[in-house]
């Protein structure tokens, strides 16, 4: 009874206030969606988003405070059990919400019958991270059904940059997006990845309206070596001009550069200054021979002695409470390091960027929406550090921030006043030589010819080292042996490990010395017998490789996380009295980009001296981006390593 009353009040409120809306934000009376679906054969479609309609309307309340309404209206066609399951819960975002103004959900069956969910559709639950979520619980859908819903919320306005993403895991028959604002507010927009540019619509009186209306938006496919989220069709929008205040482009990079610099480097209290001096003393940089060593000492001390928490808590960005709690968030880490480097007299630039695997940072559109992650650049040594990435060190930052643009903020002084000046510049990816995986393998058969004795040396550098090297500091002693064995077993799971010796453990060695793992083991996995012949799975001695299949036509261009190289040296002694007939198979050369940018390649060659076979194998990826038309060439390199994996040497008696 109480829920019914609340819902009735909600609908009454919606009806009462709807007069102030520019558009009728509700479900229509029409449930025949054939016209919207006319471009599709619904019998063969598993899932289709028939309509994705969104409107953001800005308005002033009676006290002249700005807020926004956000309206979303979707119609989904489901024609498989999986599609129905995916739509049983439709999650809704109530971020920044002041008030849920209205909502409705209904299912239109194939026979035209309409089932309305009503007030009971809205539920509250928890997700897998134990966070509260709101969703519509949809019931009664069958194959060939349409699920239609809308919700309208009143929320705090976003003016400095917002992203609306329109491409998803199902095709969309129609996408309609509108931005409505009072006469004094004008918004700028930027469409990405093929979404149409928004245009002015003058049909509303005393309102500004921008509209984008497009049909047949394709689904986003899950493809290997691609940037799915960064490639989705989307729109970025933000306030550009408020005629009442006469300000254009209020969210420009000049202003934000000053604000960021002030927040991170200025207004240092006495207590903060004392804390910084104490940390700097503990970092023991007094006898550091050069600037790079100073930076490494400061970074290493902070990242080892403080916890890093990705939560929005103002206490974790204040130096005093950071010291008290022993923890910081990203803003706190950036301020901590900026103050430490300033106190140590180390020149730096603050870099603010975005993840290119979410939305790459454009060089030609200013928006705060891209200012998500901090880096620090040291011009004297031309190296970056990531203040919030606890397991990274100077000279290596997360790959998602590289091959991307960023806002570089340097110190400028006006008399006794220091502030920041910003410029958008490119953050280059590291060359392939930075990230290496080098293997030296010596193998011999035992006397019974049923097992291999394996002497393996592995060297990890760059991102390959970062996957393991820093974590030795976090592994419990009773788990350390298991951790070390897991590193070795990346070479081959089915081995019996006899000994492991590891050099250069710990984050202090990252980007200074390679992680070196020496091991001795034995394995029956590599050998099979076929009568008098011995079959040696020689190709698997380079370690497991992935094979790149593409059942359908490739949609996205190639994008790698980082450049990298692999070098393998394998030495094998042929047992006395045996010979190998098919050694020539070990010679491979797949270099489709030679003469161009040599983007990627795979080569292997062998030599024989007496009974000793020595193989040299190299695989390299020198380019982050490759256009779609070169995909098959790139795939041939990936698959070359997988094809080498399949080589089996046949040993016969002489």
What's the helix and strand layout?
Layout: H1 2-17, E1 47-60, E2 66-78, H2 81-86, E3 89-92, E4 97-108, E5 114-116, E6 122-126, E7 132-137, E8 145-155, E9 162-165, E10 172-182, E11 185-192, E12 199-200, E13 207-217, E14 234-242, E15 247-248, H3 253-265, H4 270-282, H5 291-305, E16 307-308, H6 319-325, E17 327-328, H7 330-343, E18 349-353, E19 373-378, E20 383-385, E21 404-414, E22 417-427, E23 436-445, E24 452-460, H8 463-466, H9 477-488, E25 496-503, E26 515-523, E27 527-530, E28 533-536, E29 558-559, E30 564-573, E31 578-580, E32 588-590, E33 600-609, E34 612-621, E35 625-626, H10 631-645, E36 649-653
Parallel strand pairs: 1-10, 16-17, 23-30
Antiparallel strand pairs: 1-2, 2-8, 3-7, 4-5, 4-8, 6-7, 9-14, 10-13, 11-14, 12-13, 14-15, 18-19, 18-21, 19-20, 21-22, 23-24, 24-26, 25-26, 27-28, 28-36, 29-35, 30-34, 31-36, 32-33, 33-34
Helix pairs in contact: 4-7
Helix content, binned percent: 10-25%
The percent range for strand residues is 35-45%
Largest sheet: 8 strands, mixed
Q: CATH topology of the largest domain, which one?
A: Immunoglobulin-like
What count of domains describes the coordinates?
Answer: 3
End-to-end Cα distance, whole Å, is 92 Å
